[in-house]
Amino acid sequence: MLPVCREKQMLLSQQYQDKTLAHAIILQGISGAGKGALAKWLIELLICQQPSTTKHPVDEYSIMQACGQCKACLLKVSASYPDHLLLTSENKTLGVDDIRRGNAFLEKTAHLGQLKTILIPQAQLMTTAAANALLKTLEEPSANSFIVLNTDDIDSLLPTIVSRCAVYAIRPMVGDSLLEQLHTVSTTQGLLSSAARNQSNNNAFVNLSQLAELTDEVVSQQFEAFNQYFLDYLVHGQGESKLLGQLIDNIHSLRWLEKITCNLIRQFYLSNDADKAIFAVHQQVSVQVLNQIYQAIISSNKLIKSYTQTNRQFVGEQLLMTINNIVRPST
Q1: For the chain, which terminus, N or C, has the lower number of CB atoms within 10 Å?
Q2: What is the Cα–Cα distance from 182 to 191, expressed in whole angstroms?
Q3: What is the pTM of this model?
């Protein structure tokens, strides 16, 4: 588990021991922050029939852990534990029928343990109708039940849902402190990508949202290719189809657009030794234009996040058209 989750582990462990754990919990943080691992640990702890206390070998903080050996733990590992439900959907959204399935699951008596648990790994995908269906369960929880919701974007959840849950926000680490932690947990496992090593050498500004390209060599290579597509489009108006394809298919694409544009602006103001690609952009694209592009990217990102059924291809096409009109207003 990532070091940034340790504080939440300790807090949730203490609440578990004190029997003050909320019946509904939201784990909030950007993609890659460690929400999935934290939720898995918590669900396994709740399910376990013989949990124990352990100390972290380095920091010596105490946390509760599932034993991994009791009947409940073994059934959970084999995905056959009857009193836990992983609530996902094959569709792009989590609909009202999905939530009703979860509500019906909680209304039934536990088969093996004394409590029932539900994990919703992508809570931000709930439709409004689904969220309202969940709201009644949150307002009138069944006895001995726990619901854990993970979300990358808490602002997309209904305020009434958030207000009825205990919220644990995983705050991103930034800059050198993040790179140091990444080196600590990844160097011995060979997980730190070459891009991350280069950034570390250059004393780069990084935050936890960039974890995917920092730790995954494949994603790092995808980012480098995407970066070149975007620069080619800015400078020469080339590669629109490649860039659009990435905007449609790659979950990181809008964040990468924001990151690259922000870095270009930062380099403009802070760097005296920009690389050739950035110099090429600066020669043809002013910082004022970059700021306009940045605002257009932010607006598109908000649109995608605000409406779960938004046509991503349409948003991508409109964004590229807007960028082209900003950079080349006479064309």
Answers
A1: C
A2: 9
A3: 0.64
